[in-house]
């Protein structure tokens, strides 16, 4: 018997299908790949422990510390230092030696008797008198500024002799850098 080429091909195809396990008339799906795998329960790792508290860090910083020297007074119409003020000025000179970076601002003042111009010259002479004493006792003139303020910025009433005496003064202002520990 002679079979046609087309029939032979069909038979070969049928044999191949039969060998693969699929039936011609049965509707059974062919295995398409590996069997599905059951999902695995996902486990979250535990959260990390909280960070350890940070201890405050202490550090040393430089801080400006203002200093004002008061109580240096003068007689009326005078720029001559009073002997009672010498000890205070010696302490200022010692301070300046301990803190060579400090600049001293020497400010002279007067009571409100007389003209502004006269009191301006007198207040500047008072400040210069203090600066000269300090220079004589080791304070560099380049570390001092001298200013007269006439009768501006009174600290007491000019209506009484005690108030006028309080206003006839020199104040020394400065600031130094000090080490401070901060958290």
From TrEMBL:
Gene3D superfamilies: OmpA-like domain. One of its GO terms (cellular component) is cell outer membrane. It comes from the Bacteria. Keywords: Cell outer membrane, Membrane, Signal. It is found in: Cell outer membrane. Residues 61-178 form the OmpA-like domain. Residues 1-18 form the signal peptide. It holds the Pfam family OmpA. This is OmpA family protein. It comes from Igneacidithiobacillus copahuensis.
């Amino acid at each position: 018997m002679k079979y046609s080429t087309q029939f032979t091909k069909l038979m070969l195809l049928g044999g191949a299908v039969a060998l693969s396990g699929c039936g011609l008339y049965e509707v059974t799906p062919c295995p398409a790949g590996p069997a599905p795998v059951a999902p695995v329960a996902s486990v979250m790792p535990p959260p990390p422990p909280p960070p350890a508290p940070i201890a405050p860090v202490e550090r040393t910083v430089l801080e400006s510390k203002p200093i004002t020297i008061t109580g240096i007074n003068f007689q009326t119409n005078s720029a001559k230092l009073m002997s009672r003020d010498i000890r205070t000025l010696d302490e200022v000179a010692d301070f300046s030696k301990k803190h060579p970076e400090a600049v001293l601002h020497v400010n002279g003042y007067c009571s409100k008797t007389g003209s502004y111009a006269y009191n301006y010259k007198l207040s500047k002479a008072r400040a210069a008198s203090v600066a000269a004493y300090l220079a004589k006792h080791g304070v560099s003139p380049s570390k001092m500024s001298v200013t007269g303020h006439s009768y501006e910025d009174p600290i007491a009433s000019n209506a009484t002799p005690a108030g006028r005496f309080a206003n006839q003064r020199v104040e020394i202002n400065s600031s130094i850098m000090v080490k401070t520990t901060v958290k």
